[in-house]
């Protein structure tokens, strides 16, 4: 199998390098990843990027979505699977998916009809300053095991006939349940607790979900991605990329009124 490996933390990140070493044992792996950190850029796309050869593959002066388009469209058009990660930090909940560069790379792949897996590492808060923390190689162990398991077992057996991509979130090994974490099919949480507080000309945006998770107050029901990973299981959300539509009579009436001048 030929795998295109990308991420949003940059080609020099530990998460990408350990995933490359694991996948390279069984697959042909071509790395096409951002030259520097592109976290939280979503599906931002550039008109033109520069590409430089790197010891792992190619470093792209662009976003994760750029990397997938450049890889599939030019550098390695014969790939079978896109793997994006491993991101340092979880990507959980419906409202996070569109912001995440890691997940957006997987979404971009699906428009090329290429299956994809986005992989992220959940790092518990507490005393950790997430902005300063650098996850160690060993802390990616469960994420690596989950990814290699999915590459070996979820491709070619019909999984991607029902899902365009898989969003994977794994705990660090010491948070896993038992010697190895269980793996659970989940759905993205719908709980949303963003707010904006104004202080003069400054407005601070805060996501209170993370604080609640750090305190052990998980507001999500069983079966959701956030609850699974906080409780030490690997969360696998099977997702589709195209936006869904529902034809209904009420909107037809609005359209008809517009045509009638109403």
Summary keywords:
metal-binding; SurE-like_Pase/nucleotidase; hydrolase; single chain; 262 residues; nine-stranded mixed sheet; alpha/beta; globular; Stationary-phase Survival Protein Sure Homolog, Chain: A; nucleotide binding; two-stranded antiparallel sheet; 5'-nucleotidase activity
The gist of it:
The protein has 262 residues and is of the alpha/beta class. Helix content is 29%, strand content 24%.
Describe the structure in your own words.
Nucleotidase that shows phosphatase activity on nucleoside 5'-monophosphates. Its cofactor is a divalent metal cation. This is 5'-nucleotidase SurE. It holds the Pfam family SurE. It catalyses: a ribonucleoside 5'-phosphate + H2O = a ribonucleoside + phosphate. The chain has helices at 14-23, 64-75, 94-97, 101-110, 141-153, 159-162, 208-214, 225-230, 249-259, and strands at residues 2-6, 28-34, 51-54, 57-60, 81-88, 116-122, 165-171, 183-185, 194-199, 202-207, 234-239. The chain has a nine-stranded mixed beta sheet with strand order 3-4-2-1-5-6-7-11-8, with helices on both faces. Strands 9-10 form a two-stranded antiparallel sheet. The N and C termini lie far apart (58 Å). 29% of the residues lie in helices and 24% in strands. The mean pLDDT is 91. With 262 residues, the chain is of the alpha/beta class. The chain has a single domain, classed as Stationary-phase Survival Protein Sure Homolog, Chain: A, CATH 3.40.1210.10. The protein contains nine helices and eleven strands. Helix 2 packs parallel to helix 4 (101-110).
């Amino acid at each position: 199998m030929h795998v295109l490996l990308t991420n949003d933390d940059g080609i020099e990140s530990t998460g990408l390098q350990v995933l490359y070493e694991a996948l390279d044992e069984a697959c042909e792996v071509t790395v096409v990843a951002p030259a520097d950190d592109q976290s939280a850029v979503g599906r931002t796309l550039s008109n033109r990027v520069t590409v430089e050869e790197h010891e792992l593959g190619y470093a792209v002066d662009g976003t994760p979505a750029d990397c997938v388009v450049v890889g599939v469209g030019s550098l390695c058009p014969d790939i079978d699977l896109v793997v994006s990660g491993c991101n340092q930090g979880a990507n959980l909940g419906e409202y996070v998916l569109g912001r995440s560069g890691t997940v957006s790379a997987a979404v971009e792949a699906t428009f090329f009809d290429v299956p994809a897996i986005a992989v992220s590492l959940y790092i518990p808060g507490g005393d950790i300053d997430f902005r300063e923390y650098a996850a160690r190689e060993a802390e990616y162990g469960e994420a690596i095991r989950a990814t290699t398991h999915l590459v070996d077992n979820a491709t070619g057996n019909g999984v991607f006939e029902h899902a365009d991509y898989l969003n994977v979130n794994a705990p660090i090994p010491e948070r896993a349940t038992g010697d190895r974490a269980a793996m659970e099919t989940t759905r993205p949480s719908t709980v949303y607790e963003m707010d904006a507080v104004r202080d003069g000309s400054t407005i601070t945006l805060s996501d209170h979900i993370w604080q609640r998770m750090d305190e052990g107050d998980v507001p999500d029901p069983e079966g959701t991605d956030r609850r699974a990973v906080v409780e030490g299981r690997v969360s696998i959300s099977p997702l589709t990329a195209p936006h869904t539509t529902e034809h209904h009579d009420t909107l037809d009436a609005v359209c008809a009124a517009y045509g009638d001048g109403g």
